[in-house]
Design brief:
Layout lengths: L32 E10 L12 H11 L3 E9 L10 H9 L2 E10 L9 E9 L2 E12 L10 E13 L2 E9 L7 H15 L5 E7 L16 E3 L17 E6 L6 E8 L10 E8 L7
Parallel strand pairs: 1-2, 7-8
Antiparallel strand pairs: 1-12, 2-4, 3-4, 5-6, 6-7, 8-10, 9-10, 11-12
Helix pairs in contact: 1-2
Length: 289
């Protein structure tokens, strides 16, 4: 049966609440499918569209999404004054009572010896147990190097979750923002190579792709993945004009994940709007222990 969802008041671009995404109880045959609500959100290092750091505001927004799994981008961990030197992934996980796996893109020496490392990257938050996690390298053009060249660098997160006995591979990414798509082309190739290592598994890719769905550089992704099209733009958060934030799922074989509905929440808690999707996991694959 489908999980009963709390009523929430977040408005969706289509004029519905997030809670309205949840299918009616009994819609799936018991024992044959498992519901899973996922979301992706670029949190802009804790700052809203107004450039004011406010983790309380973002916590409230994430709680309202009522998601089981959340992919976060632009996550600071003791990075600097802009986020009050706080560990945003860890703090959000504690506030939301979720498990966390953080995958830094940059990990720099602290400004003061003995302090935590200055890190920035992506994260997975999960209500379900994280049974393994890995920080993969993909091609990047560093923003910390004054003369960068494309090179492998970390920050492509993979977390394997156990969802009601089912193994689910969740990946979180943040693709290059530059108008020239050459780095994103390489990143998409890297993404497909990494995900192919677990082909046949249930896979969910969450992230800020910095390109719209019909961008040529994203086309290879849609060979193996289904875009959980929320039907609305996500960026900028105020009067958005582009959909660059994605939930995508494996679409074929025993690991196929069904998209029931996607939506975009109307909020200015970041400079992006979050995407939330209700998914359905089939039980064709063997249960894990």
């Amino acid at each position: 049966m489908y999980l009963r969802r709390r009523t929430v008041g977040v408005l969706i671009a289509a004029g519905l609440s997030v809670a309205a995404l949840a299918p009616p109880a009994g819609a799936a045959e018991e024992g044959h499918a498992v519901p899973l609500r996922v979301a992706t959100y670029n949190i802009h290092a804790g700052a809203g569209m107004d450039e004011v750091f406010d983790l309380d505001r973002q916590t409230a927004q994430l709680r309202a999404l009522d998601a089981d799994v959340i992919g976060l981008q632009e996550v600071d961990a003791h990075w600097g004054a802009r986020s009050e030197w706080r560990d945003l992934a860890g703090e959000l996980a504690r506030r939301l009572d979720m498990r966390v796996s953080f995958a830094p893109i940059y990990s720099l020496d602290p400004a003061t010896p003995g302090e935590p490392r200055r890190e920035y990257g992506v994260a997975v938050l999960s209500r379900y147990r994280i049974i393994s996690a890995e920080n993969h390298e993909i091609t990047r053009l560093s923003t910390q190097d004054p003369n960068p060249v494309p090179a492998p660098a970390p920050g492509f997160a993979e977390a394997v979750l156990r969802v009601q006995g089912l193994p689910v591979h969740v990946y979180v990414t943040h693709l290059d923002y530059r108008p020239d798509p050459s780095v994103r082309i390489a990143q998409v190739a890297d993404t497909r190579r990494i995900m192919a290592e677990d082909r046949g598994a249930r896979q969910i890719l969450l992230g800020d792709f910095n390109a719209e769905p019909d961008a040529p550089e994203l086309a290879p992704l849609w060979q193996e993945l289904t875009d959980a099209d929320p039907g609305a733009p996500t960026f900028p958060a105020k009067d958005p004009v582009k959909r660059i934030d994605f939930v995508a799922v494996s679409k074929s074989g025993a690991g196929a994940v069904r998209v029931r509905e996607g939506a975009v929440a109307e909020t200015l808690a970041s400079d992006h709007r979050p995407v939330v999707a209700d998914l359905e996991l089939r039980r064709q694959l063997p249960l894990v222990g």
